[in-house]
Amino acid sequence: MALPDNDNGREQQGPVIRDKRRIDPETGELRTPEGAAEPSPDSPAQETAEEAAPSADGAEIAELRAQLEERTNDLKRLQAEYANYRKRVDRDRIAVREQATAQVMSELLPVLDDIGRAREHNELTGGFKSVGESLESLVTKLGLKKYGEKGDEFDPNVHEALTLVPSPEVSVPTVIEVFQPGYLVGERVLRPARVVVAGPTEEPAAEAADTPADQAGPEAASGGEAPETGTDQEQK
After folding, report:
1. Are 192 and 160 in contact (CB under 8 A)?
2. Which of 84, 128, 212, 220 is deepest in the core (most CB within 10 A)?
3. What is the phi/psi pair of residue 204, to 5°?
4. pLDDT surpasses 80 at 55
5. Confidence tier at 63 by pLDDT (50, 70, 90)
6. What is the pLDDT of residue 224?
7. SS3 annotation, the chain
8. Among 158, 189, 203, 196, which Cα is nearest to 174's?
9. Which positions ≥6 away from 175 have C-beta within 8 Å?
10. What pLDDT is attached to residue 146?
11. Is the Cβ–Cβ distance between 177 and 218 less than 8 Å?
12. If pLDDT is split at 50, 70 and 90, which confidence band does 200 have?
């Protein structure tokens, strides 16, 4: 039995199914939609896409380089700050140690003075001599330095002048006697040396060469011979 004709006089057809999948399930390639023209290899759209891809990569690389440079500068700055911190700590540690050493040495100076006076009077003998020399050796190892000797040039930074004696035998202020030696710890003066200083004097000027003839004695006015007095003439 024939199916009835439709309004156009054609036989009714079954449902039409269209495959709109973008990827071909058999080949795995990208399909071109129906009615759309396949882009040519030299089309402007493809060229723009190809140009945009490297531009985007270049911008990303530039940003990464900028971040790397920033992190590197931060690391260098942090390293410099740490180095400065270590220097400050080391400097403060040395200063504290020198201060503590100087304080202890200041308390020992009277004892060292007694040992020195005993040595000058030949009283540093026996066990007292051994103890005194051991103490002097110990403070020397800790950085204590004794100074102040006869013949040293006077230095107001480390010497205390008790007396100044003019002397033609020296050309610069010179120590001629030490009443009390001085002590140093590093560059710090614990106690200045108390000394007597000899200072240079100017040579006396030749006054005879500068004195006028009328102010000279009678011998100079008469050519070196004194005029005869009345008593001398009578005796002759």
Report:
1. yes
2. 220
3. -65, 135
4. no
5. confident
6. 46
7. CCCCCCCCCCCCCCCCCCCCCCECCCCCCECCCCCCCCCCCCCHHHHHHHHHHHHHHHHHHHHHHHHHHHHHHHHHHHHHHHHHHHHHHHHHHHHHHHHHHHHHHHHHHHHHHHHHHHHHCCCCCHHHHHHHHHHHHHHHHCCEEEECCCCCECCCCCEEEEEEEEECCCCCCEEEEEEECEEEECCEEEECEEEEEEEECCCCCCHHHHCCHHHCCHHHHCCCCCCCCHHHHHHC
8. 196
9. 148, 149, 150, 151, 152, 153, 154, 159, 193, 195, 196, 197, 198
10. 92
11. no
12. confident
Amino acid identity for residue 100 in this structure: A
Mean pLDDT value across the chain = 76
What is the rounded CA–CA span in Å between residue 177 and residue 121? 17
Q: For residue 228, what are the contacts with CB-CB under 8 A and spacing of at least 6?
A: none
Provide the sign of the torsion angle of the four alpha carbons 145, 151, 154, 160, taken in this order: positive
Which tokens belong to 138?
A: 């110990």
Kindly tell me the burial class for residue 191, based on how many C-beta atoms sit within 10 Å of its own C-beta (0-12, 13-18, 19 or more): middle
Q: How far apart are CA 185 and CA 190, in angstroms?
A: 7
CB-count exposure of residue 42 (10 Å: 0-12, 13-18, 19+): exposed
Tokens coding 133? 């020399």
- Length of the chain as a residue count: 236
